[in-house]
Amino acid sequence: MGDSLLLEAGFLAVLVAPLRLLRGGSPAWRPHDAVTFWGVRWLLFRLMFASGVVKLTSRCPTWWGLTALTYHYETQCIPTPGAWLAHQLPVWFQKLSVVATYVIEVAVPLLFFAPLRRLRLFAFYCQVLLQVLIILTGNYNFFNVLTIVLALSLLDEEHVGRWLGRPRKRHGSAWPPSLGSVLATLLELSTYGLLLYWTVRYFSLELNWDKKLLDSKVAFTYHEFTTWLRTVTLPLVGVAFLSLSWEILVAMYRCVCVRGCFWKLWATLQWAIMATATVGLFAVSLVPFTYIEHESNGKLWPGIHRMFGAVERFQVVNSYGLFRRMTGVGGRPEVILEGSWDGHSWT
């Protein structure tokens, strides 16, 4: 899984990394950058959404019982000192952690394509929080660091500039606020409210005041989940296509705004090449993405399947799904080394 992600991210880096064939007058920022970065965001979405979905489609009893983390910290390949500490946490907190994992991996990735900047920032910090916690409690080499790098595609120049100590841009604080800002705030608060409401409803979150803990359990069936997945898979593809189309149109407009006839043509040529490459990658990625729901996979245009078959051996697009089933439920396997001087008595 990690090698597949590295291959796909490496190929996307070819599109994202700036190519300075012509330096004179060429700005550091390129009009088509938002299009290629969208490809990175789409990879992050497929990685996280599929990782959350497969935990439930696998019918693993520990994921459905929210008890997976009561085994995970102890039975994973290379536990860390932080894993030992996490393993000591009470069961109700372990179950609540599984609920949070589902929310971050299944629900929050939908915000990657949100029109509001603050929702995308919220999604970014949720993903980073999850990956940092995994790093502290397990050793998975570069995988989690690479996922954090992919999550950077959710940020904008202004937010990164604040990390680098650049002065914050001053925005007018007119009162009363404009209708657009009011609607944006209402949409943002509604999103958080719905996220909390559906989490409480579908995981039956309930405070137990006597025991001073938070009870949780899965409040939907496997059939209900697969029906939901069948319903949303192709619409998610449609939302992603609209998001990509918007980025392409905005990039085209920015090419028109470039000063100088030659640089305008040069920016438009780069835009055409990168937009075509991104649309092509998006198209072929639909095949491995819809592996999570086979009926949706069968509804894809046959030409997309042929395109994917032509590039499949290069692994430029892949299917993902981390921790499909929790291993080591029966206990952590231990390696026992024995030695003998005479071949009869073993120590």
Automatic annotation (TrEMBL):
Q: Which UniProt keywords apply?
A: Endoplasmic reticulum, Membrane, Transmembrane, Transmembrane helix
The answer to whether the entry has keyword Membrane is yes
Membrane topology value? Multi-pass membrane protein
Query: Which N-terminal residues, if any, form the signal peptide?
Result: none
Any matching Pfam family: LMF1
GO annotations under biological process? protein maturation
Instruction: Write out the annotated subcellular location.
Output: Endoplasmic reticulum membrane
Q: Could you tell me which residue ranges the Lipase maturation factor 1/2 N-terminal domain spans? A: 3-160
Spell out the GO cellular component terms annotated for this protein, sorted alphabetically and separated by semicolons. Answer: endoplasmic reticulum membrane
Q: Which residues cross the membrane?
A: 122-155, 175-200, 232-253, 265-292
Is Transmembrane helix one of the keywords? yes
InterPro entries per the UniProt record, alphabetical: LMF, LMF1/2_N
Organism domain of life: Eukaryota
Q: What does this protein do?
A: Involved in the maturation of specific proteins in the endoplasmic reticulum.
Entry similarity comment: Belongs to the lipase maturation factor family.
What's this protein's name? Lipase maturation factor
Q: What is the lineage of its organism?
A: Eukaryota, Metazoa, Chordata, Craniata, Vertebrata
